[in-house]
Amino acid sequence: MAEATIAAEKPAEAGNGNDMLLEVDGLVRHFDVSPPFLNRVLERTGRRIVRAVEGVSFSIRRGETFSLVGESGCGKSTVARLVVGLYPPSAGTLQFEGVDISSPRARRENPTIQSRMQMIFQDPYASLNPRWRVADIVAEPIRVHRKGVSRTDVLARVGELLRQVGLSASDGEKFPHEFSGGQRQRISIARALAGEPEFLVCDEPTSALDVSVQAQILNLMKRLQKRLGLTYLFISHDLAVVYHVSTIVGVMYLGRLVEWGPTKELFGAPRHPYTRMLLDAIPDLEMSGRARIPVAGEVPSPIDPPPGCAFHPRCPLASDRCRQEVPKAVGSATAAVACHAVEEGRLPPWHGA
Amino acid sequence: MTASDEPSDRPLLEVRNLRIEFPTRRGTLVAVDDISFAIAPGEVLGVVGESGAGKSLTGAAIIGLLEPPGRIGAGEILLEGERIDKLPYEELRKIRGKRIGTIFQDPLTSLNPLYTVGEQLIETIRTHLPLGETEARARAVNLLEEVGIPAADERIDHYPHQFSGGMRQRVVIALALCAEPRMVVADEPTTALDVSIQAQIISLIKRLCRENGTAVMLVTHDMGVIAETADRVAVMYAGRIAEIGPVTEVVKHAKHPYTHGLMGSIPAIGHDVDALTQIDGSMPRLNEIPTGCAFNPRCPKAFDRCRVERPSLMPAGRSSVACWLYEDEAKEAAHGG
């Protein structure tokens, strides 16, 4: 039994034909934040819909890290929650190894798939139950997904998981408050790994941590990915972190993917004006004194997004077409950009190139 | 660069051997231990460190807003040559806002949600400057325009919740600048903001300091923000200054092993490494600060002396470093000069 539970350390199974682990197509999620019916009638107001995710498509290859990056309110965390099934999508499809898991019902019918994905949350203070011992927290996914495993085997596995994330097996006896932020995030990772998942959705896993602790966690995540053949969907607002961990990066703005591509290409030669603006906004640690496009404006509300390309009010290249027509992503499955200026060849060269 | 390596004849703010302690039932915890630095007029001093390093406490001590039971245990704080750490509360209140402005991390908690932005600005202006209602209002509108709020004469009558995060932080900056202070303490002014907004706020702070000759103490954990904004930088670790010097020197040629590790642990675009430099372990708790150099248990270069004797700041190149590795260099420099 111990053998079977330790079997988590295996490389990615290759050669089952389809190497896309997750495929997302036309994902939409709206939230209704309308006042109650009576208020709407009395105040003569309509419904208010937050268009958090507005048609997002991407696919993640096995063993790779796909990152979503964008500013607050761009819908990146909503995508993460849709993928693990914390929200049902309003429209669009999700496929895991070719099996449809779009609806809650499809997920119930495929419980093994659900057990193969796990999530790591941003706030290691809020995501661990303060009244549970660490061993119980880490053991929970084993108890849920692997029923009938004996108590001693569970404890052995918990000890092994804790060692795997750089804690000691005896830490299982402690409560979360006895750990620092970085150690708590290690516990979250141990818990996520307990169900032997292949796919981890990481929602800003290091945003609440200090840089030196962030480095420890990022190194740990990369090491685990290599050793266990994990696939990551990584959500972050920090472009440097994303550069460090990702294979493919997608940039989101107001619920849409505006550009995606392999990490080096995207950061080396960004095409969408928003990607360029984000890259220019990062404080320059090298102090090269490079010329930067001044950043202007703020992200509009997703309740009432601008018509056409949502970025047009802040875009230096906006034309009449941009104000009316939503640009479609042009390119391949691995690299594409949704911008009229790029399509029409109006894009100036990138200064960093 | 307005910075000078040796602070000009009379620094605007001088902190000497400051010690901040928290008396508890199990003994006194020392959160900030014997730190000294000075800020020249018009200079931006960045104070960087991880959570719990004591950087915010230092800022709070300067503006006299240490939360009890925290207290200044020793040392002195001088503003334009005058001691302000022992002043009675009412006296200090007059300095705070008038001569030292403050910008805090969370713009929502530093604004009163029940008053319009204008009421708060006008109240602050009239507390510190002898202006009438109309003049104060005109000044408030000017200030809002200066910090980049569009349609300021209309926006002045709005409540804080009607502003976005970035705009709120601009209002807070306007509040800090109401009485034209000589110095601003900014505690993580951009941490709660998105990168694109952060860039706008950084350039705003830089511009205002340049134009008004205001000195800024910028407390942050973000080395990138420091590199963009500061003239000099102090790196804090476990309540002590590990290294202080001109920003280019500290960022590009970090001397202290902690600063070195810290810089290596920051991921950077275009910098391809398989693993980031990792400083193992974490900063000690206040009741477990090791003897000798506080960093010695995590330091890859620690030797016997580091475990016994605490290093004080010694000159090394253009910076000062609290590390025994630089003792010989410091001695040589002393003999040579």
Automatic annotation (TrEMBL), chain A:
Q: Which GO terms describe its cellular component?
A: plasma membrane
Instruction: Give the chief site where it resides.
Output: membrane
Q: Where in the cell is it found?
A: Cell inner membrane
Keywords from the UniProt entry: ATP-binding, Nucleotide-binding, Transport
Q: Cross-referenced NCBIfam families, in alphabetical order?
A: oligo_HPY (TIGR01727)
Q: Kindly name one Pfam family recorded for this protein.
A: ABC_tran
Q: Which GO terms label this protein's molecular function in UniProt?
A: ATP binding; ATP hydrolysis activity
Q: Where is the ABC transporter domain?
A: 28-279
Q: Which family does it belong to?
A: Belongs to the ABC transporter superfamily.
Which membrane topology describes this protein? Answer: Peripheral membrane protein
In Swiss-Prot or TrEMBL terms, this protein is called Oligopeptide transport ATP-binding protein OppF
What's a BP term from Gene Ontology annotated to this protein? peptide transport
SMART domains linked to this entry: AAA
InterPro entries tied to this protein: AAA+_ATPase, ABC_transp_ATP-bind, ABC_transporter-like_ATP-bd, ABC_transporter-like_CS, Oligopep_ABC_C, P-loop_NTPase
From TrEMBL, chain B:
* Major location (coarse): membrane
Classification via Pfam families = ABC_tran, oligo_HPY
Show where the ABC transporter domain sits: 15-263
Localization, per the record, is: Cell inner membrane
GO BP, sorted A to Z = peptide transport; transmembrane transport
Query: Which SMART domains does this entry report, sorted A to Z?
Result: AAA
> How does this protein lie in the membrane?
Peripheral membrane protein
Listed under GO cellular component are: plasma membrane
Q: Which GO terms describe its molecular function?
A: ATP binding; ATP hydrolysis activity
Top-rank taxon of the source lineage equals Bacteria
Alphabetical keyword list: ATP-binding, Cell membrane, Membrane, Nucleotide-binding, Transport
State the family it belongs to: Belongs to the ABC transporter superfamily.
Q: What is this protein called in UniProt? A: Oligopeptide transport ATP-binding protein OppD
What is the organism of origin for this protein? Oceanibacterium hippocampi
